[in-house]
What does this fold into?
Amino acid sequence: MLEIGTHNKPKGKKALLLGSGELGKEVAIELQRLGVQVVAVDKYENAPAMQVAHKSYVFSMLDSEKIRETIEKEKPDFIIPEVEAIATETLIELEKKGYNVIPTANATFLTMNREGIRRLAAEKLGIKTSPYRFASTKEEFYKAVEEIGIPCVVKPIMSSSGHGQSVIKSKDGIEKSWQIAQEGGRVGAGKVIVEGFVKFDYEITLLTVRHIGGTSFLQPVGHYQKDGDYQESWQPQPMNPETIKKAEDIAEKITTALGGRGIFGVEMFIQGNEVIFSEVSPRPHDTGMVTMISQDLSEFALHARAVLGLPIPNIAFHGPSASKAVVVEGESQDIVFSGLEEALNIPDTSMRIFAKPEVSGHRRMAVLLARGNSVEEARQKVQEMAKKIKIQI
Ligand code: AMP
It folds into this structure.
């Protein structure tokens, strides 16, 4: 039986969020709705989740010492990673001491690095993926490209949101692709994965929630990416029942191997009736923001319930929906949104402004949400909203 007491009293429950972006902010809100105290951490001040948390700390989540010190001081009941780049060896250590890392410390360790999760899926679990090679030196890289063949996709093993990612379309592009990967990797130069280019019909995120009563799948989320970063997502992605079943089997296999409780975003490519696993996040997924309008319990609410060990007897779906990321380009610490009246005058729409304190380069600052009679209509609505929203930087 779960007991949720008063904050800072023996039965009070406390969650520590490692990562305080827009996804963490929604998780914080959902945990607070159930009476949980929330401590938010990120490397900069005023990050979105910090703005709604009870308490916050500013330090790099790759700083093992700071993570250990803060966790030992705060003694959270739940340690909830929101980003990939975390000192995961420290989480493994803390889990051994009895701390509850969501979903598991090993899951955060394996998914921080493209190599860990790819080898687990393809080599241990026998799940179909694109052909791949890893390379640490330029020489190995040229050999890998030759073996995989052109076109192929190159990604640093430690990166996300398309950083350092490129597609080699001809021999002339090999050298450039190596440079892009070396400059874009999260922790500086390093190892890359070379993947065969999958000419998929469409790609999905199959949000999968492991909870006290078992594993539940959400309606598949379709999405459109540009330069490795999500632009639009919609739900449900039309799929035939046989393909959905294949996708669910893969999601079940990989999430079972990672273990623990919480929501997972399982990314897959669909080509005809083939389902090809790409990667998995053991946490809410950006393309899953669409669930803030499509379902009664969003992916964030489901994550909170699963983490707390509360039941998820059903997931009510409200119908075809879409989301569109609002990405801002430039340099500013004073970002002004307008046109909200016109955008939100469209029926069955909503939006979230993340209130990130600054932009330097390009940054996702808000998300537009809509429901419609069909996915097409919902997508048209978010596109219409995007035309009406004005951003001054
Ligand atoms: P990732 O960072 O691995 O999620 O990749 C970002 C996006 O790049 C994916 O959502 C796809 O749209 C595209 N992509 C990644 N890997 C491949 C691949 N092997 N073949 C074709 N497209 C890919």
